[in-house]
Amino acid sequence: MAFRPLVRLRAALPLAAVASTIQAEPTDQNLPRKPIYDEVPLSRQPSGTKSPPDSPTQSTSPSPTDRLATQVRRARLFAHAHASAAEDRVNSFMSSVLVHERSFTQIIASLAPPPESQERLIPGSLYVLVAAMTGSIVSRNRNILLRATIPAAVGLGAAWVVLPLTMRNVGDLVWTYEEKVPVISLNHLRIRGAVEEAVKESKSAYKRVRGAIEQGVTESREAVEGWVRKGK
């Protein structure tokens, strides 16, 4: 019974210590409190899963999608380059066709005679065709050389007679092309000189023969008139 006060005293001492500790703790409600669970950033992986080690092949080699995009890009560039080249070739071809067509129409228009010359192409061309057919009919029983040359010669002669201005324009056009080949132009000049010389000789011979005939006719007429006077 004597030890009861001592036991009570020992039991009261821890209670007093706990009360003093509670009183010593701060009672401010505004102090920050730590959360119950630790917040883990979303970028971080859980500690339980291990990330695979970074390999150098994964960082350098492209993915299948990237390789497919690269191939599609190359194919598109290849198709665009060839399409552009084909378009350029077509445009250059059409430009050259238009240029040749314009030059051809200008050449054909330059061959026509001027309107004030009163030279008609349709009837003149028909006359030339008829003359060439006549030469072919005349030379049909001859050798092959005459059958080839006589219709052309007769047709050219009729063309120079019926369509002189048109034939002159055609000759000038042919001469412009012949000047590009010196051999053909020199031979043309020689043949033309020989033909012109032959024409001059023919004209002079014709004049001499005509003069001689006229002189003979005049002398014959004078002689007949003299005989008539003597007979009277």
How does this structure look, described?
This protein is an all-alpha fold and 232 residues long. The chain has helices at 4-24, 56-60, 64-111, 121-138, 144-162, 164-178, 182-231. 76% of the residues lie in helices and 0% in strands. Helix 4 runs antiparallel to helix 5 and helix 5 (144-162) crosses helix 6. The N and C termini lie far apart (226 Å). The model is unreliable at 21-30 and 40-49 (pLDDT under 50).
Summarize the model shown:
With 232 residues, the chain is mainly α.
The secondary-structure class comes to: mainly alpha
End-to-end gap = 226 Å
Fraction in beta strands: under 5%
Q: pLDDT below 50 for ≥5 consecutive residues: which ranges?
A: 21-30, 40-49
Helices and strands, in N-to-C order?
HHHHHHH
The Rg value, from CA coordinates, equals: 61 Å
How much helical structure, as a percent, in the residues? over 70%
The strand count comes to 0
Overall 3D shape: rod-shaped
Please report the number of helical segments. 7
Average of the residue pLDDT scores: 78
Largest sheet: none
